[in-house]
Structure to design on (125 residues):
């Protein structure tokens, strides 16, 4: 993987991580409901950030999908770690939280990466 590709994928991951994480992290622990709490604008950002490396030709389909899609469970895991450090009895079912967000996260990233690939093809013709 080239330096350009690594840089763009890193920025896309970070943008997706914070795009999903910032709204999710603000929800009080007692009101959390996954996967409902991650649906919305955050997943639209994941799709856009997955399309970006494909449009500029920096990444292939699967690296863009897997790296950017991993930002969603990473944002949830960051919340789990923060809450567990504050109260060790919280998130005792955290593996299920991660499983619940894998599907929507990777589906949004796959859709975005596919659209980005199509836009790259249209741009090159």
């Amino acid at each position: 993987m080239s330096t350009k590709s690594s840089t763009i994928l890193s920025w896309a991951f970070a943008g997706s991580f914070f795009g999903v994480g910032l709204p999710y992290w603000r929800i009080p622990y007692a009101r959390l409901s996954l996967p409902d709490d991650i649906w919305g604008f955050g997943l639209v950002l994941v799709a856009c950030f997955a399309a970006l490396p494909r449009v500029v030709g920096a990444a292939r389909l699967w690296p863009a999908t897997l790296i950017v899609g991993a930002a969603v469970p990473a944002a949830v895991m960051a919340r789990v770690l923060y809450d567990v450090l504050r109260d060790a009895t919280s998130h005792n079912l955290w593996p299920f939280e991660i499983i619940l967000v894998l599907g929507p996260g990777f589906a949004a990233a796959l859709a975005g990466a596919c659209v980005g690939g199509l836009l790259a093809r249209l741009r090159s013709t």
The radius of gyration is 15 Å. Residues 3-124 form one domain.
